[in-house]
Amino acid sequence: MSDKRNLIAVIGDEDTTTGLLLAGVGQITPSTQEKNFFVYKEGKTTREEISKAFTNFTEDREDIAILLINQHVAEKIRSQVDGFTAAFPAVLEIPSKEHPYDPEKDSVLKRVRKLFGE
Description:
The protein is α/β, with parallel strands linked by helices. Helices cover 36% and strands 19% of the residues.
C-alpha cells in the first residue's frame, strides 16, 4: 500500500496552490494528464466542482497519501469532509492568506475531541 500512495494533493485557493506547486508538490500524470491539485476560484468554482475534486483525490485515486485543503474551501463541502473517515489519504485542513485557521471547524480536531470525551 505504501508503494502506491506517494503524492500530496491540494485543493486550495490560487495563492496556496501556487505556493505548494512552487515547493514541488505538483504532478501531472503523463498517461492520463491527471493533476494532483485543484485551484479554487472565489465566485467561479462551484460546490459540485469542489466535491468532485475531493471525491477524485480521496476515493478514485490510489496514489494520494495526503490531501491538503484550505479550510474555507472545506467549509463549502463540510459534510463530505466530516464524513470521510478512511485512513488514507489523510485530509488536513490548512489556512490561507485571506482566511485564518479555525480549530473549531477542523474535522480532525473534532474527532480527537470526541475520542477524549470533550
